[in-house]
Request: fold
Amino acid sequence: MPPLPPLDSSTQCPAPGRYPATWEEVEASLVRAEAFGASSTRPGLWEELGSHRALIECLFGSVRRIWLAGSFVSGKLNPSDVDVAYLLDASVYGTVADPDDLADLANLSDREWCVKHGMRIDAYVLSLPATLRFKDLGVVGAMAAGDSEVFQILGLYDEIWQRTRHTGRRGYLEVAL
Reply:
């Protein structure tokens, strides 16, 4: 199992960039690692993230990838929450039509609701582009309708996820599921 990227000494976060990881690698490196053995929050946050992910998967059937960032993806011993973005295939994003399911999705994306229900999760749900073939990207008529906006939104979130409140830029993890 390759280790997650080293933490920058000035920010205690990964250097700017998006780093691939598996679910198991994240758990091993950010929850079970010796450096976090004395953490009073990481094991609970991990369980809450697992529960939250299961609820999102109940609504959509599957999640393709997850972006993880914030204090959970840092050297902080006791982070207060998990920042997560769920990236869904375009074919399932927007398929939730039942009013009750839409309300559930709104709740799962509301930090205050999550905290009230025992999950210290700050979550976002994003679509991946429908265009799958690289050679179709940017070609008029070949790229799926709406993908230009999807790429802009993903770029915006990528930029946001690489920023910190006080110390400049940081990296984050992309977990393939």
